[in-house]
């Protein structure tokens, strides 16, 4: 465990040094809690805090919650809602806000196993009540994950993942954003997972958040109704 944590720390420090020498790297911080009621049904809550510079110039936060229901091992339905707050650039939570938004979103995720790899396709429709009025947005994310490491507790401790997400609207010019992420997840125990990654976001239309490069640091904690559920190997892509 210590060697894995040390490796993640070295990755974070290396990214910070590269950022200081070449380009501004923001931070993308995630705290996620999930309660697994059954193998099919779970509830989740999540908070995010983002900055345009390395843990400086904080400009965005969100908190959201929802419910997931797995129809079978290949299909999951979700419904979520949350508050999304974007501030002006140039400082920490600088006013006036660029956007004050409430969002409701149904979601469909399709899973497919290809040998040791897991392919995931996520479809999300967002109903957005923003500072500039009501808007619709549609998101498609495709990702692949690969679990590895010595299996000593019924699961592999490491998970490498890559994903790319496209954002569309129902108004011209339709395409709004592209978001790509590379991540490494370390499963500390059956309940806790630590994530470190790199996220690049490109915005065609900037209306709620700025697209740049971010260091992603996430902590995910799962609760289980039954102890027997806690030993499973969760290879799903972490949300963002």
Q: How does this model look, in words?
A:
With 240 residues, the chain is mainly beta. The chain has one domain (2-231): monomeric porin ompg (Porin). It has 1 helix and 11 strands. The protein has one helix at 2-22, and strands spanning 26-36, 41-53, 56-72, 75-88, 94-114, 117-130, 133-148, 158-169, 175-187, 192-203, 213-224. The chain has an 11-stranded mixed barrel. A hairpin with a 2-residue loop joins β2 and β3. The longest helix is centred in the first third of the chain and has 21 residues, at 2-22. It starts with a helix and ends in a 16-residue tail after the last strand.
Structural descriptors:
mainly beta; 1 helix; Porin; 240 residues; 11-stranded mixed barrel; 65% strand
Write down the domain tally: 1
Number of helices: 1
> For the record, what is the CATH homologous superfamily label?
monomeric porin ompg
Overall strand count: 11
CATH third-tier fold name: Porin
The unreliable regions are none
**Main sheet makeup:** 11 strands, mixed, barrel
Q: Give the spatial strand order of the biggest sheet.
A: 1-2-3-4-5-6-7-8-9-10-11
Order of helices and strands: HEEEEEEEEEEE
Instruction: Give the termini separation.
Output: 25 Å
Set out the fold topology.
Blueprint: H1 2-22, E1 26-36, E2 41-53, E3 56-72, E4 75-88, E5 94-114, E6 117-130, E7 133-148, E8 158-169, E9 175-187, E10 192-203, E11 213-224
Parallel strand pairs: 1-11
Antiparallel strand pairs: 1-2, 2-3, 3-4, 4-5, 5-6, 6-7, 7-8, 8-9, 9-10, 10-11
């Amino acid at each position: 465990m210590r060697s894995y944590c040390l490796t993640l720390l070295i990755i974070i420090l290396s990214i910070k040094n590269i950022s200081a020498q070449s380009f501004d790297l923001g931070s993308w911080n995630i705290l996620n809690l999930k309660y697994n009621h059954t193998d099919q049904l779970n509830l989740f809550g999540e908070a995010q805090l983002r900055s345009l510079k390395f843990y400086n110039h904080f400009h965005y936060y969100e908190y959201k919650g929802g419910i997931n229901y797995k129809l079978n091992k290949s299909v999951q339905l979700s419904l979520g809602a949350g508050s999304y707050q974007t501030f002006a650039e140039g400082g920490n939570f600088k006013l006036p806000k660029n956007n004050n938004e409430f969002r409701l979103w149904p979601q469909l995720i399709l899973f497919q196993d290809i040998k040791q790899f897991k392919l995931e396709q996520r479809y999300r429709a967002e109903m957005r009540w923003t500072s500039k009025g009501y808007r619709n947005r549609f998101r498609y994310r495709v990702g692949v994950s690969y679990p590895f490491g010595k299996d000593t507790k019924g699961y592999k401790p490491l998970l490498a993942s890559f994903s790319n997400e496209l954002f569309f609207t129902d108004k011209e010019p339709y395409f709004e954003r592209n978001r790509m992420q590379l991540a490494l997840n370390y499963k500390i125990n059956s309940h806790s997972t630590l994530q470190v990654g790199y996220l690049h976001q490109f915005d065609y239309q900037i209306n709620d958040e700025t697209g740049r490069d971010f260091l992603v640091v996430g902590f995910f904690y799962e609760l289980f109704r039954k102890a027997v559920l806690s030993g499973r190997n969760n290879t799903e892509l972490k949300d963002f």
